[in-house]
Design a protein that fits this description.
The chain is an alpha/beta fold. About 40% of the residues are buried. It has 2 domains: about 60 residues; about 190 residues, Vaccinia Virus protein VP39 (Rossmann fold). Helices cover about 40% and strands about 20% of the residues. The strands form 2 sheets. A 7-stranded mixed beta sheet has the order 5-4-3-6-7-9-8, with helices on both faces. Strands 1-2 form a two-stranded antiparallel ribbon. α2 packs across α4. It is elongated, with a radius of gyration of 21 Å. The longest helix is centred in the N-terminal third of the chain and has 15 residues.
Length: about 280
Amino acid sequence: MTEVRHALGDATRRLGERVDAEALLQHALRRPASWLVAHADDVLSLADEQTFAALVQRRLAGEPVAYIIGRRGFWSLELEVTPATLIPRPETELLVELALARLPEDRAASVADLGTGSGAIALAIGTERPQARIFAVDASADALEVARRNARRLCIPNVGFVEGDWLAPLAGLRFDLIVSNPPYIEAGDPHLAQGDLRFEPTGALASGADGLEDIRRIVVDAHDALVPGGWLLFEHGWNQGEACRALLEAAGYREVFTAQDLEQRDRVSGGRRPG
């Protein structure tokens, strides 16, 4: 029989990441992190030991921890994720911060989140701006069902979910803000066949030969879908800032900018429709 501390130590050595080992053991035991500390000398049951070993083996095979345990923290939210959705990443919180800075706290606003996946961006904005009306769009019905479950569980009522391709299902509507974390990896990038990316939906990651195919469409279509003075903000790759600014300027946006993430890499670009 194995004590909690020894099971955790062995898994940490095998995985090379204590945080992964702790997350998997918490999931196997259905216990919080504090329990692992307080009960470090407890002996695991044979069933729990076998369950934990199976989870560790899945991680050793490369499966992302978020898919194994079915959740990932983003902003202030704990989100359900599945292989139908992209795994929310900390750097995307910059997009949320920039969006909130452009949305009033004390009055209504209309927002579209294109390619919502698990609903991470839309739900983060929705919980911080309860007067905003947010339309979360995704072409994947399976991803939208995950996002809907997240909204229901988190009790965020001001986000609605729409199935369709980018802005197409929102034709005729106008928005104060459009946000997106679209696919932006080059279709032939070898990283798509490595690490966690192997398990994530390729359609949410890759976009044409230069990674900018979907961004080009969003930049053009969003211009007329914004109210005068409305903003478009989107995430992109670390080496795409200059190209994204050029696309925005060519489409007639003003106040075009690129913001860098905590590692000083270009991460989010945006612009404002003249008004």
